[in-house]
Every structure is written in C-alpha cells, then in structure tokens.
Design brief:
This is DNA/RNA-binding protein Alba-like domain-containing protein. It holds the Pfam family Alba. GO terms for molecular function: nucleic acid binding. InterPro entries: Alba-like_dom_sf, DNA/RNA-bd_Alba-like, UCP030333_Alba. With about 100 residues, the chain is of the alpha+beta class. The protein has a single domain (about 20-100), classed as Alba-like domain (Translation Initiation Factor IF3), CATH 3.30.110. It has four helices and four strands; from the N terminus they run ααβαβαββ. The protein has helices at about 1-10, 15, 30-45, 55-70; strands at about 20-25, 45-55, 75-85, 95-105. A four-stranded mixed β-sheet has the order 1-2-4-3. Strand 3 (about 75-85) and strand 4 form a beta hairpin. The N and C termini lie far apart (about 40 Å). Residues about 1-10 and about 10-15 have low confidence and may be disordered.
C-alpha cells in the first residue's frame, strides 16, 4: 500500500485531473468499446489521451490506427516510458512498458 501512496503523491495535479484520458486494458472491455469512447471524448474535449501498460499497448495502437484510418483523429503526441510495478508492497519492482498517445479531431 505504501508504494501506491508514494506513486499518487508524486503525480502532478494535471495527471490526476486529466478528464480526457482513457486507461486501456486488453482484458476488461472490447476494442470497439474503446474506439467509441475515444470518439465521444474527442467530440467533448477535441482531444483524447490513450494510456496503456504492458500487453495493452498493442490495443492502444490498434485503437489509434482505427481512428486515424477512418478520419476521426490525427496523432498529436506519443510517449513511451517504463514504470516500476509491484505485485505486493514488499516485492521487488517489475519494470513495465507504458504508452501515452494523444489524438485530436
């Protein structure tokens, strides 16, 4: 629990209050759920940020390509980084790939 609290405390205000960010999972929702949600966010905010960890990164890339190929979005910015994740509070950190992609309509 301490690791989670430390991570939250280190976040900037802009990160915690991002209303147009979608955190994508490749196991919880279908691909087209995220495509349709992204379209809705772009109508509301004119921009959407897709975020994914590990294996879900390919899902974000697919969503972005669907939106771009159908003329709904244009790439604005793509960032890749590595974050340390812990399964248990006392466990060793495991590095995970993270992708942040911004699209705008």
């Amino acid at each position: 629990m301490e690791g989670i609290t430390e991570g939250v405390n280190k976040m900037s205000v802009s990160e915690t209050q991002k209303k147009n960010r979608i955190q994508v999972s490749n196991t919880k929702k279908s691909l087209f759920f995220y495509v349709n949600l992204s379209k809705r966010y772009m109508q509301q905010y004119n921009e959407v940020e897709l975020s994914a960890l590990g294996m879900a990164i390919s899902t974000v890339v697919t969503i972005a390509e669907i939106l771009k190929n159908n003329g709904f979005a244009v790439e604005k910015k793509i960032r890749t980084l590595t974050v340390d994740m812990r399964d248990d509070p006392g466990a060793r950190p495991i590095p995970k790939a993270k992708l942040l992609g911004s699209l705008w309509s």
